[in-house]
């Protein structure tokens, strides 16, 4: 039987393979009493998951597909000024009443992030969970897919129960699937579908005096929405970012407005600063999707009244990461 030599080649160029073949052939000529069969096996490197689709976990008012690696602690400061519509009277909203959120999160294992935060408006406490389901990998997965969930509790004092009849009415929840793709080294895009739920809706049912049946009156408990976000790198540390959020569910009244945001992002290895103009001001995803009263466009409300667009707010996000 002729001996066979299997040579795995990892990362060698054409000239390296040719050199090995010539060397073995020369050895075969020298040793005339034996015949050697040469079989060259070239092993290709395995594809690796794409990195840095987005540099941080936030893109303006939405979560990105990114989940911090194991052992990462994150601190967030989010700020929204008043609307710019009054111009110089309140210095384009900078001197108007503002909203602030302070948040922190931690990644106990890879692909999983848990967080907590509090928002000035309604003294809203929130807890969140984020899990990376799939990471974009060339030749294997064309997209990254992440799940994000949030539960919030309205902690305002209500001694006479004028706000909430039951404690469960203070709770709002949010579930979202995020799909993202790093198109190239400069451009990243993501789309998401979300379901917001509110446990309390004033006047949700009303009784028909003639039939005694309950009739749907105002907002529903559940609300579907779609969002599209993107980032384009201008340099290694500076990017242009945008969000567009579109309500899908139509309610009988109190329909929320869409959100259009545009701004800049500045990054270092452990810091991210975003400065932008947008319509969302409530700093909680389910409240933004359910109750946004600011619109980028002129609109007609469900009761027939006309609404003016152009109600933007100036905002910024600061994120700091620590890795252990």
Describe the structure.
This protein is mostly beta strands and 324 residues long. It has 2 domains: 4-42; 58-323, Beta Barrel (Porin). Helices cover 7% and strands 47% of the residues. A 12-stranded antiparallel β-barrel has the order 5-6-7-8-9-10-11-14-15-16-17-20. Strands 1-2 form a two-stranded parallel ribbon. A hairpin with a 4-residue loop joins strand 10 and strand 11 (187-198). The chain is globular. It starts with a strand and ends with a strand. The model has no long low-confidence stretch (mean pLDDT 87).
Task: Write a brief caption for the model.
It contains two helices and 20 strands. The protein has 324 residues and is mostly beta strands.
What's the layout of helices and strands?
Blueprint: E1 4-9, H1 14-30, E2 37-42, E3 58-59, E4 62-63, E5 72-83, E6 99-109, E7 112-119, E8 124-134, E9 144-154, E10 171-182, E11 187-198, E12 205-207, E13 214-216, E14 222-233, E15 238-247, E16 259-267, E17 271-278, H2 285-291, E18 299-300, E19 306-307, E20 313-323
Parallel strand pairs: 1-2
Antiparallel strand pairs: 3-4, 5-6, 5-20, 6-7, 7-8, 8-9, 9-10, 10-11, 11-14, 12-13, 14-15, 15-16, 16-17, 17-20, 18-19
Strand content: over 45%
* CATH structural architecture of the largest domain: Beta Barrel
The oligomerization state is: single chain
Q: Tell the overall outline.
A: globular
CATH topology of the largest domain: Porin
Span between termini:
58 Å
Q: Provide the spatial order of strands within the biggest beta sheet.
A: 5-6-7-8-9-10-11-14-15-16-17-20
Helix content: under 10%
Query: Can you summarize the main beta sheet?
Result: 12 strands, antiparallel, barrel
Strand-pairing-aware structural class: mainly beta
Number of domains: 2
Chain-averaged pLDDT: 87
Q: Supply the number of helical segments.
A: 2
- The CATH homologous superfamily name of the largest domain equals monomeric porin ompg
Radius of gyration over C-alpha positions, nearest whole angstrom? 28 Å
Could you name the ranges where pLDDT drops below 50 across 5 or more consecutive residues?
A: none
The CATH class of the largest domain:
Mainly Beta
Task: Give the number of DSSP strands.
Answer: 20
Q: Give the topology string: H per helix, E per strand.
A: EHEEEEEEEEEEEEEEEEHEEE
């Amino acid at each position: 039987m002729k001996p066979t030599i299997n040579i795995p080649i990892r990362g060698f160029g054409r000239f390296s393979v040719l050199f090995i073949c010539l060397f073995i052939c020369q050895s075969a000529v020298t040793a005339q009493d034996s015949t050697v069969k040469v079989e060259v096996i070239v092993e290709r490197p395995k594809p690796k998951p794409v990195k840095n689709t987005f540099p941080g976990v936030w893109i303006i008012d939405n979560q990105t597909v990114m989940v911090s690696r194991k052992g990462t602690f994150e601190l967030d400061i989010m700020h929204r000024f008043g609307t710019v519509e009054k111009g110089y009277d309140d210095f384009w909203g900078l001197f108007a009443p503002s909203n602030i959120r302070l948040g922190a999160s931690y990644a106990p294992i890879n692909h999983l992030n848990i967080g907590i935060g509090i928002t000035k408006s309604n003294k809203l406490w929130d807890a969140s969970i984020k899990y990376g389901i799939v990471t974009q990998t060339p030749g294997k997965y064309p997209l990254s897919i992440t799940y994000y969930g949030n539960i919030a509790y309205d902690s305002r004092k209500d001694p006479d129960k004028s706000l909430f009849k039951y404690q469960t009415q203070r709770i709002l929840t949010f579930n979202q699937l995020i799909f993202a793709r790093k198109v190239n080294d400069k451009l990243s895009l993501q789309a998401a579908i979300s379901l917001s739920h509110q446990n309390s809706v004033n006047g949700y049912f009303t009784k028909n005096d003639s039939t005694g049946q309950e009739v749907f009156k105002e907002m529903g408990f559940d609300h579907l929405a779609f969002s599209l976000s993107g980032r384009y790198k201008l340099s290694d540390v500076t990017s242009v970012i945008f969000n567009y959020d579109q309500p899908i569910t139509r309610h009988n009244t109190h329909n929320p407005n869409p959100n259009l945001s545009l701004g800049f992002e500045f990054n270092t290895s452990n810091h991210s600063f975003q400065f932008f103009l947008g319509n969302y001001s409530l700093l909680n995803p389910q409240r933004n999707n359910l109750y946004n009263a600011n619109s980028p466009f002129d609109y007609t409300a469900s009761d027939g009244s006309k609404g003016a667009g152009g109600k933007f707010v100036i905002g910024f996000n600061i994120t700091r990461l620590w890795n252990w």
